[in-house]
Each structure stands twice: as C-alpha cells, then as structure tokens.
Design a protein that fits this description.
By secondary structure, the chain is of the alpha/beta class. It contains seven helices and 28 strands. Helix 1 packs across helix 6, helix 3 packs parallel to helix 6 and helix 4 packs across helix 5. The longest helix has 19 residues. The radius of gyration is 32 Å and the shape is elongated.
C-alpha cells in the first residue's frame, strides 16, 4: 500500500503548465504571467495633482498660518487670487504667474511653474480668491512624472499570478494583452451502467450521474478550464475513442466510476495502447483504491476515481487539485491547515490517513478553532455531509481514536458565499 505522500509526489511530478498564450488583460485574472512586462513610458506621464485643491508656487504660501500683523497690530491674512481651473483630462496648458493660484482636480495636469497643491482644507475654498490657513512645501500633494513606474521598469514579472492590482497596472502602462499560462484543460468522464443524466428519470437499479457534475465543479473551483464529457459506455472501443479524443484537448483527464474489480481491469485493457495506468491502494480513506497514469503522446495525467461521489471528491481534493494548482503556478498548492479541538469523539481506520468532512468554527471568547465531524464515523457514502462541510479533518494513519477536546489537523475547503 502506497503512502499518501508517495502518491502525491507521483501525481504532482506530472504537472505541466500549458503553453503560453496572449490574452486580453480582462481575461488574464487568476492566470500565471509568462513574460516580464517592461514599461515603455513613465507613470504618471505628467506632473499631476494628487488631491483636489489649488495649484500654487510653494514660495508664495510660506507665510500662511503665521501670526503676521500690520503696522497697527492687525492680523494679516495671506490670500491669493484664483485665476483659472484645471479639470482632470484637461489638455489646455496653463502657466501660473507669481502670487496666483489655480483651482485643480485630482489627476489634472499641474500648471507650469506650480510646484505644490494646496488641499481645500488648507483654504476657505474661495472661487475668485482664497484665504490660506496652512503652507505647503515644494512637491506636496503632487504626483511627479515617473513616481510610480519609470521606462524600463518591470510592471509585472513572469511567474506572477495576475490579480486585480496587476490588471490595473497593465492597463496603466498601456498594455491591452499579456502572455500567460492558460488554465489547464481538464476533461471529466463518468463510467457506469447504472448511471443516467439528470435530465432523465432513473429506472430500477439506476442512479443519477453525480460524479461528472461534482468533479467538474471541483475542477473549476481549483482553476481548471473544464469539459464535462458526462456518461460514457464502458465498451472498450467506445471508451478508447472518447479518452483518446480528450487526451488531445486536455492537460488532465479524470475518469470516475472505473476503479477496483473487473471494471477497472477492463478499462486498463481498453486504454493499454495509450499508455500505462496503474491501480494502487493508497493509505487513505475514503478513496483508498485509485488509478493514475500518463496517457497519449503528451503523457497527459489521467486519473481513475471511485464511483462513490464522496470518495471521488476526496481523492480529487487530495490528488488532482494540487496538480491543477501547480500547473497554474501556485507556490502553495495544498489547502491551508490549522489546529483545532474536536467537540466530539472520532474513530478512524488504522493504517490509513483519514479525511473526515467537518465544520470548522471559532470560539468567540478565546479565538480557538473548534471542529465538528459530520456524519457517522466511517460513513464515506453520505454526500449530504460533504455539501455541509467547510473543512476536512486529517487524521494520521497511526491514530484510531480521537477524544473530545483533542487537537487535530484541519484543512480549509473553499469558502462559500
């Protein structure tokens, strides 16, 4: 029996990022950048106001706020005339003369000779003339040319995951497209004579095809571009044709319902000409019996998963999801783990790492994580408990009993809502 770690190493070694493609920046979010994006122009491209206010020469407002009085002892207010207004996007050049001010909007180009912006709060907000309460220094509230990015700077580096900030920066430097590693393409196939699609009514002995829908959703959640093939006959020729067609268009293929017993032997024989698939017992539960191989000319990672939807989803979470995350360039492909105290006892299978559906909570007073197992211990068939779960309790192979209040490792699943 293989350990979980050995099987994960075998699987993740097959991860390959798809060949780079150039896409619009609006389509690049969440993808791995495949080039160093070098800026050609400075950002900002001109001196501009960083705040709404008045463009001034700083030397003209240095006395503001000081207790200055005239010969009769009366306080002297520092004022300047407002000789114009500059809106954001203005193309009309304005030259500021000594002892003048210009009303200016955030992002508007600074008038010639102006070297600072007086915030509105530093003045009485006048339209024709302003009374100034506080001084500013040269450069205050001004974004200078190239303050953000200089020509030749790298705006986004190769290997960076493109998020909202990177999309914004690409737009700011004038890039409408960027070279990225696309989402890995994943095909999901269900096999089983008992299966019918959800648009049909099951007959005696038949059940709905759960796996192709659930696994396709899990793959999308992991970041893959998914093709749900649906139910495919186990007829050797038909199956080989379908799988061969998916190998050409996919970086990952997942076949559910074909692991263990005579069916898996038939599947392996059908696909033998495409490469070697091995069925292994992995020291985990649920989903200990699982298959993996690299098929086709491009040695596409191909998985055989249990027919039990809970087992299939758990194996997908532990084996397939990390491979997708690595292909996407994620530095940490595994789920975040925390320590939590159980609020009820748990039993686990000796010699196998247990993955138990659970709800993770936090004590409002202590901040401590608490976790509640869902479903009866060892019940790997209850899909409803997986739907309620926000985490998986991970129990080491040598542990068979966990008492109430004991600490366990818990893996966060995707947040809902």
């Amino acid at each position: 029996m293989r350990s979980v770690e050995d099987q994960q190493i075998k699987v993740t070694a097959a991860a390959v990022a798809p060949r780079p493609v150039r896409v619009a920046i609006s389509e690049a979010q969440g993808l791995l950048c495949a080039e160093d994006v070098v800026t050609e122009n400075p950002l900002p491209g001109f001196d501009q106001a960083a705040i709404d206010g008045y463009a001034v020469r700083s030397v003209d407002v240095q006395g503001a706020g000081a207790d200055i009085r005239d010969e009769e002892g009366e306080p002297i207010d520092l004022t300047l005339p407002v000789v114009g207004e500059v809106a954001a996007g203005s193309r009309q050049p304005i030259r500021l003369q000594p002892r003048q001010s210009v009303r200016i909007d955030t992002g508007a180009p600074l008038p010639t000779l102006a070297d600072a912006v007086l915030p509105l709060d530093f003045t009485d907000g006048g339209r024709a003339r302003i009374k100034i309460y506080e001084p500013v220094r040269s450069g205050d509230y001004v974004r200078r040319v190239g303050d953000d990015v200089q020509p030749g700077d790298i705006a986004v580096r190769a290997g960076t995951i493109i998020g909202a900030a990177q999309v914004g920066l690409l737009a700011a430097v004038g890039r409408d497209k960027v070279l990225v590693h696309p989402r890995p393409r994943l095909s999901v196939i269900s096999i089983g004579g008992e299966l019918v699609d959800v648009d049909r009514t099951p007959g005696p002995g038949q059940v709905y095809d759960v796996n192709s829908y659930a696994l396709a959703a899990a793959a999308r959640d992991a970041g893959a571009d998914v093709n749900r093939v649906g139910i495919v006959s186990a007829d050797p020729n038909r199956l080989r044709d379908v799988v061969e067609g998916q190998l050409v268009r996919s970086e990952v293929v997942v076949i559910a319902g074909a692991v263990g017993g005579w069916t898996s032997d038939q599947i392996r024989e059908s696909l033998a000409g495409l490469g070697e698939l091995t069925i292994d017992r992995v020291a985990m539960h649920p989903g200990s019996v699982q298959g993996f191989g690299r098929l086709g000319r491009d040695e596409v990672p191909t998985f055989l998963l249990p027919s039990n939807p809970v087992g299939a989803l758990v194996v997908f979470e532990i084996m397939v999801r990390p491979l997708i995350r690595i292909a996407l360039g994620r530095r940490h492909p595994m789920r975040r783990m925390v320590r939590a105290r159980t609020i009820m006892p748990i039993t686990s299978m000796e010699g196998r790492r247990g993955y138990m559906r659970a709800q993770l909570m936090r004590d409002e007073q202590t901040g401590e994580y608490l976790v509640q197992p869902l479903g009866a211990n060892g019940s790997s068939h209850l899909l409803s408990t997986l739907a309620e779960a926000n985490s998986l309790i991970v129990i080491d192979p040598e542990v068979t009993e966990v008492r109430t209040g004991d600490e366990v490792q818990v893996a966060f699943l995707a947040q809902r809502g």
